[in-house]
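Sharing a chain and its predicted structure for anyone who wants a worked example. Both blocks are below, sequence first, tokens second.
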Amino acid sequence: MNWYKRLQANEEDRWQWDEDAMWDYYDEHDNHMMNQVREFNESKPGDRQPWRLIPLPRVKKIWADYIRMGFVRDTKGIQLIEDIIIENVRKIHANTIMMGHTMQDPEDILTDNEMTMNESDRHDYSDWAVDDNGVRRISDYALNNLVNGTLELMHVKTPEEKLQKIDFILNVVHQRSDIASWFVQGGIEGLDELSNQTI
């Protein structure tokens, strides 16, 4: 990772795509949060929030092919990785809000959507939105970079541009080793493999 030079845009172009991507992301943000609350309400005691991970062998092959050939052969694989990243960032974002770790009041969002959660529900939600180690899937420190990276990813079109944005997001995750296991199979060890692979 970090072997590419990030694409540059002039300020006017960057402002335009930032705004477009932001609208795309936030247009669905509240809907996604409410779907997540419904999913929690429909869960059974002991259930955990459904979660997908990027398959490590596939991402390593895509990265190796790109380094060797200069283009992305596995476009379906890039799309799969993009979908998983966007889905997981949205879930982390929603969890962080629902557990009261942002300036947004989750009660306002619930009320606007004619939903409620009592104190017991909130406690159960925090037990539901955990990883295999019982760690709550929220982020106080990486969230802004993850959301901003996702906005960039949602804007670009070509598989090669997508790979570059995905690489940036995986570098953010790699630096925050506590959340690596929420994105890639093998967690921090998997990202170490990806970062250190030789062609």
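Comments welcome. Residues 1-16 have pLDDT under 50 and may be disordered.
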